[in-house]
Backbone:
């Protein structure tokens, strides 16, 4: 490396100007502002029993029924995703099994549950008692028998959870399978050569590496589920969407309550997005030299570099961006 | 170097579909012997190595390790396929090192080495870690215990891979072109580790292009071409006085 004394001065060139960008930004902002202003004032002018539009939005934003609906929405989302992920992983491992019976069962499951609308599936579970008033299990040729009324076992909430979760499992199975296929075959071979059996190879070697591929679409599915859970109204489960509709019908503040619901959905998906970022970071370990900074770390670095002078060339640690070995 | 052979192959055949990769391999590896296998690519060396720990199934012939058939059990004149669990147990007694290292990227060097002893052999964690540290020290990577594979150079990764295989205390080590994916200046460290292993009396089958290593460390040298053993013998003799025309052409092209 050249001596620091003989190093020529750091280039301080005048950057290229981009006047077009500024013009475009002004135009876009102007259009956005006028559209938003028009809608916002229109809503404000729509006076309801609770007052002008935006006052109504504020009035119902923390309404007890809305908050209860949010809890139900979250419960549905979490339970359905837990069912979906666990069953999805099992189905994916089954699908890749050398046993033809096991892999066919998995294929059939995905074919059926992915091929019928989730709304139909929720309705199905909700109305199961019409054809099957009792559900029981027993051991054939013995008197050991246990049974329960279908409506006791499958409550409306249960029907919605089953419908959403079992449907989700079919999609998760494909996502997990794609992740497992993406792991290099040499990994499986190395693990087999060490004497690990198929399930151990899956659990300890393939799945953890597949997570990097599985997590982004799973985050996507979770966000999607948060909103799809509104279909639970089909089983008369009073989650966020149903609640806002009930209030809207009673108060005629239709648009205002849609805004209330949208704000809450946006908040929840934003939180999930942040969670997904940190999960990806965790499972990305060992794939990059040093993990990328979190937004918080990046923010701190900006503060530090604002106040500190730029490092002199000799201080810069020599880290070559060498290729992935 | 004596006693019953560690590896014994009699007329081993292997085909992938219509392609015959092995066309009758006969050879023996004695305990404590280091056998090097050379030959052009596609000659079947790697395939034969993978047959030894049953990563590939053979189609004809007999292949046995330490007196037991690989992948089968013989009763009378019938062969029975072995159950997966038995195949796994037998594999755990044979170490294998790959050309592309195949370290587990989501685990540190130490975790790579202790994984199989803990999960397969059900060893205690402290015992496994203790041995793993000793092995990593032996391959010269005592201070890289906590490093992930992508923080290591190719040569360091391959040495971790060797430590990982040794952690299972194998009776036989298979090396599949262990230095072919390495930058030239990193080859030496890996070969040094292998030389040390040979001096300690490990039985080794090494597929390699390193003629120097084959000459100095190998007890025997096998030249394969077209799925058969063309020539075998003492490394010095095969390398300096090859008997077959095919061996001469190959050696003159690589030396």
Residues:
């Amino acid at each position: 490396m050249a001596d620091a004394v003989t190093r020529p001065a750091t280039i301080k060139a005048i950057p290229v100007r981009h006047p077009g960008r500024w013009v475009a930004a002004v135009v876009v902002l102007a259009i956005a502002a006028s559209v938003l202003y028009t809608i916002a004032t229109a809503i404000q002018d729509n006076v309801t029993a609770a007052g002008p539009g935006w006052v109504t939005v504020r009035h119902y934003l923390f309404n007890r029924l809305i908050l209860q609906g949010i809890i139900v929405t979250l419960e549905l989302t979490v339970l359905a995703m837990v069912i979906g992920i666990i069953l999805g992983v099992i189905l994916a491992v089954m699908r890749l099994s050398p046993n033809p019976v096991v892999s066919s069962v998995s294929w059939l499951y995905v074919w059926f549950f992915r091929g019928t609308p989730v709304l139909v599936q929720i309705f199905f579970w909700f109305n199961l008692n019409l054809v099957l008033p009792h559900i029981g299990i027993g051991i054939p040729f013995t008197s050991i028998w246990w049974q329960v009324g279908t409506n006791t076992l499958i409550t409306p909430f249960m029907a919605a959870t089953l419908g959403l979760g079992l449907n989700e499992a079919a999609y998760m199975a494909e996502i997990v399978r794609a992740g497992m296929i993406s792991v290099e075959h040499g990994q499986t071979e190395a693990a087999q050569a060490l004497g690990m059996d198929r399930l151990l190879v899956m659990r300890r070697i393939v799945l953890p590496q597949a997570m990097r591929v599985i997590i982004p679409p799973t985050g996507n599915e979770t966000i999607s589920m948060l909103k799809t859970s509104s279909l639970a109204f089909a089983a008369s489960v009073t989650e966020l969407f149903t609640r806002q509709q009930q209030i809207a019908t009673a108060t005629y503040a239709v648009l205002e309550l849609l805004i209330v619901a949208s704000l809450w959905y946006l908040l929840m998906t934003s939180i999930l997005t942040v969670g997904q970022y940190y999960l990806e970071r965790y499972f990305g370990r060992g794939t990059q030299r040093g993990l990328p900074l979190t937004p918080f770390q990046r923010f701190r670095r900006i503060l530090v570099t604002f106040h500190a002078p730029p490092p002199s060339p000799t201080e810069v640690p020599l880290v070559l961006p060498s290729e992935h070995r | 170097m004596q006693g019953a052979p560690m590896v014994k192959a009699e007329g081993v055949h292997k085909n992938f579909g219509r392609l015959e990769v092995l066309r009758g391999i006969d050879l023996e590896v004695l305990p404590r012997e280091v056998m090097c296998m050379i030959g052009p690519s596609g000659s079947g060396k790697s395939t034969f190595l993978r047959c030894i720990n049953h990563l590939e199934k053979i189609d004809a012939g007999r292949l046995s390790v330490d007196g037991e058939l690989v992948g089968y059990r013989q009763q009378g004149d019938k062969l029975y396929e072995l159950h997966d669990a038995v195949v796994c147990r037998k594999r755990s007694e044979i170490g294998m090192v790959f050309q592309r290292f195949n370290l587990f990227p989501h685990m540190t060097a130490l975790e790579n080495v202790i994984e199989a002893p803990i999960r397969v052999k059900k060893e205690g964690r402290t015992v496994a870690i203790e041995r793993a540290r000793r092995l990593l020290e032996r391959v010269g990577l005592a201070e890289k215990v906590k490093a992930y594979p992508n923080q290591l150079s190719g040569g360091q990764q391959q040495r971790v891979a060797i430590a990982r295989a040794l952690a299972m205390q194998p009776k036989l080590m298979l090396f599949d072109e262990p230095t072919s994916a390495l930058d030239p200046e990193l080859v030496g460290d890996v070969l040094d580790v292998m030389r040390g292993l040979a001096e300690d009396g490990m039985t080794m089958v090494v597929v390699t292009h390193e003629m120097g290593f084959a000459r100095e460390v190998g007890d025997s040298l096998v030249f394969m071409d077209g799925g058969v053993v063309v020539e075998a013998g003492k490394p010095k003799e095969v390398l300096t006085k090859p008997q077959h025309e095919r061996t001469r052409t190959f050696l003159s092209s690589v030396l």
Chain B touches chain A at residues 53, 55, 84-85, 88-96, 98, 100, 102-107, 115-116, 119-120, 148-154, 157, 161, 164-165, 168 (CB under 8 Å). Chain B has a mean pLDDT of 94. The first helix of chain B runs from residue 45 to 52. Chain B is about 35% helix and 25% strand.
